Amino acid sequence: MTADVETVVRPDSASSQTPARVPDHVAIIMDGNGRWAARRGLPRVEGHRRGVEAVRRAVRSAIELGVRYLTIYSFSAENWRRPPAEVADLMGLLKLFMLRDLAELHANDVRVRIIGARDGLSPDIAGLLEEAERRTCRNTGLTLVVAFNYGGRQEILRAVRRLAEAVAEGRLRPDAIGLDAITGALDTAGIPDPDLVIRTSGEQRLSNFLTWQTAYAEYVIAPEFWPDFDHESFLAALDEYNRRDRRFGGLSDKAG
Ligand code: IPE
Ligand code: IPE
Ligand code: MG
Predict the structure, then answer these.
(1) Mean of the pLDDT values across residues 4-31?
(2) Is there a domain that residue 222 lies in?
(3) pLDDT tens, 95-149?
(4) Beta carbon of 34 within 6 Å of any ligand 1 atom
(5) Distance 31 CA to ligand 1 centre (A)
(6) CATH of the domain at 83
């Protein structure tokens, strides 16, 4: 029998840098790009550019540490409220990332999944997202989940509509709708719930991120702005995670 990934003491744990328990799924709210830039008297877009470099680092860290799923919050359903020029910068950076990084992600056996609403996106962006998912769908290494045009409440709404349609068409009985049916109707179908949510820049809120899926996630607030988040920061977050006692409403393993 194979041990649960979470409880495996990794073979290279001789290094003091390697945490004892590596979460299966780490989800990151990448926050603070604008403040990083403002501190330096730079335009906000420069913070977003440096944020893309931090994404590349986080992917490398996740692979190195043996994280199975890494979700990154790239653009929220509410981020459309920003000035049009900033929205255009963010769209442009996503396009560049997909164009420049997809080959390397693929070479590293990374599977890309996109969550969020596809309608409202320009056809070129929608096409790139589809291409990224299609090209990497057979990869078995890290799954990189990109939350783009994503809102947790909107995702639940889409799932409810899907289930309601199935009921209306007679394919589903209302009393057959259980927690699994809802979980399976979300964009994240097939992806385990996050074990650890990291938010950078010191902010302590969820901002409509993975509303359903984070019911029992552990939260770690990292003080650094996202462009400064590096491998050490990742390790520090996992270190804090390792000090948590996850009880899921039951009793601690440590309870006598
Ligand atoms: C995170 O940085 C990137 C996105 C939300 C797209 P912000 O742009 O939110 O940076 P701050 O929070 O204004 O510093
Ligand atoms: C959350 O950050 C969205 C992303 C990281 C993509 P925001 O900066 O948009 O969140 P608020 O507005 O501070 O809650
Ligand atoms: Mg922010």
Answers:
(1) 71
(2) yes
(3) 999 999 999 999 999 999 999 999 989 999 999 999 999 999 999 999 999 999 9
(4) yes
(5) 5
(6) 3.40.1180.10
Query: How many structural domains does the chain have?
Result: 1
pLDDT at residue number 153: 98
242 counts as catalytic? no
| 98 part of a folded domain | yes
How many alpha carbons fall within 13 Å on the CB side of residue 251?
Answer: 3
pLDDT tens figures, 217-227: 999 999 999 99
Q: Where are the beta strands (DSSP E) in the chain?
A: 25-29, 69-76, 111-115, 143-150, 196-199, 218-221
Domain span holding position 66: 7-11+20-151+194-242
Q: Is the dihedral of CA 169, 171, 174, 179 positive or negative?
A: negative
In Å, how far are 30, 100, 116 from 81, measured between CA atoms? 18, 27, 16
- What residue numbers does the annotated binding site for substrate cover? 32-36, 44, 48, 76-78, 80, 82, 199, 205-207
Please pick, among 4, 24, 79, 239, the residue that the annotation labels catalytic.
79
Q: Which ligand is nearest to the CA of 47?
A: 1
Structural domain includes residue 254? no
Indicate if ligand 1 lies below 6 Å from the C-beta of 90.
Answer: yes
Looking at ligand 1, which residue's alpha carbon is closest to its atom 13? 34
Q: What is the pLDDT of residue 49?
A: 98
Determine, yes or no, domain membership for 251: no
